[in-house]
Design goal:
Shape: globular
Number of strands: 15
Distance between the termini: 7 Å
Strand content: 15-25%
Order of helices and strands: HHEEEEHHHHHHEEEEEHHEEHEEEEHH
């Protein structure tokens, strides 16, 4: 299953021009992945994408394809910037872990140590202790409006997902979150949620600066992620977002609702240009595929210069078991992403221990430490690039799973 990946030894250093590859395996991988991308574009399932694949720290595949802006005829570039949505979560979680290493923050710190007014209650009126660990692992009892039907409590309280409500402050969103009863006692369940946005405020206070500054100081600057942050540093490189549609994806407007699950997700792409909007740790960053590859590779190789190897080991250890089905059957959760526990149950060619996550604007990534493999696939198409056939077909092509 993994023979094709195991044989790849292409001398292409991240960010440098390709060296002479070993032809057979390089061409086979390129043909398979090109086929997936070409089909997705031809069938008008995605508008544009940047895909980077690295093994042993060397890029074995790189391609920018399709359009960054279809209507303007602007082609996709490898250095294109994307609204990262939930890819922001892992970056901010790593910033939190860096503060823990510096003993400026503790995993078991109650959130009230940093945000005294953050005191959501259970349905019976009792006030449980929520810790930093609960926030990192999404076991705090919080939720998302997108996980609820239209009449759910998060909709009624108008709690922002970090993708919408341009101009909303962190103070007001925290007030709204605390006004809603917790879904379960902290530590007694798992639920994807606004926990990372709350964590972002904790990181800001523990780090002694606004969240964007703390993340830059601890993560993006040490790694040379020059295009990644909570604002758009080069608007000419920013891709235009699209949503799934027939006969082709639909260009998003200033406020765009995309049906999904029990309700759907509201996107406000303009939010990233509004300085009044709280910097969403869960959904608010902008960055490039190349920058994100640097971030993942730093973790895969032990964490330097951001984290210690012992912290990366914690990060990549299952904190919530597969019963939570964080990415479906067979998937648990660590301190920053989903972790594959049972590849057979997940029906995945990936190795046990693979880390993976995705972003609602149309992205997914994974790191297979056993195969020394890192994959970043960013698109400008919601939700196809996140968990549509494109994501699955790309994964299977990389592993040559049909063999």
């Amino acid at each position: 299953m993994h023979s094709a990946i195991a044989a790849l030894m292409v001398a292409v250093t991240v960010g440098l021009a390709p060296a002479t590859p070993e032809p057979a395996e390089e061409r086979a991988l390129q043909a398979r992945v090109d086929g997936v991308i070409d089909r997705a574009l031809a069938e008008k399932r995605i508008v544009g994408t940047v895909v980077l694949i690295a093994r042993d720290g060397k890029v074995v595949y790189r391609r920018a394809a399709g359009a960054a802006d279809r209507e303007a005829g602007r082609p996709m570039r490898e250095d294109a910037l994307f609204r990262l949505a939930s890819l922001s979560k892992s970056v901010v979680s790593v910033a939190a872990l860096a503060l823990i290493e510096q003993q400026k923050l503790g995993l078991e710190d109650p959130v009230t140590k940093w945000i005294p007014t953050f005191r959501p209650r259970l349905a019976d009126g009792s006030e449980p202790v929520i810790t930093v660990r609960h926030l990192l692992t999404h076991t705090a009892g919080l939720s998302y409006d997108l996980m609820e039907p239209p009449d759910g409590p998060y909709h009624k309280a108008r709690i922002s997902s970090g993708l919408d409500q341009t101009g909303l402050s962190m103070k007001e969103n925290l007030r709204r979150i605390t006004s809603v009863p917790l879904s379960y006692a902290p530590g007694k369940g798992w639920g994807y949620s606004v926990a990372t946005d709350v964590l972002g405020e904790v990181v800001a206070r523990a780090g002694g600066a606004p969240l964007p500054k703390v993340v830059e100081r601890l993560v993006t600057r040490p790694l040379g992620m020059a295009g990644t942050g909570f604002n758009v540093r080069d608007a000419a490189r920013l891709t235009t977002p699209y949503a799934d549609g027939k006969p082709e994806p639909v260009r998003m407007g200033d406020s765009h609702f995309v049906p999904w699950g029990p309700n759907g997700v509201t996107f406000e792409p303009k939010r990233v240009f509004d300085a009044r909007s709280f910097p969403s740790a869960g959904a608010g960053m902008v960055g490039s595929a190349g920058d994100y590859l640097k971030f993942l590779e730093s973790l895969r190789t032990g964490g330097a210069p951001v984290l210690k190897p012992s912290t990366v080991e914690q990060l990549s250890t299952v904190q919530v078991g597969p019963e939570a089905q964080t990415l479906g059957p067979g998937w648990g959760f660590g301190l920053a992403s989903g972790l594959l526990v049972d590849p057979v149950q997940a029906r995945s060619p990936q190795s046990a221990g693979t880390w993976q996550w995705m972003g609602a604007y149309g992205h997914h990534w994974f790191v297979d430490p056993k195969q020394r493999l890192t994959v970043v696939a960013l698109t400008n198409t919601t939700f196809e690039g996140m968990w549509g056939p494109f994501a699955t077909q790309l994964r299977d092509a990389i592993y040559d799973a049909g063999r």
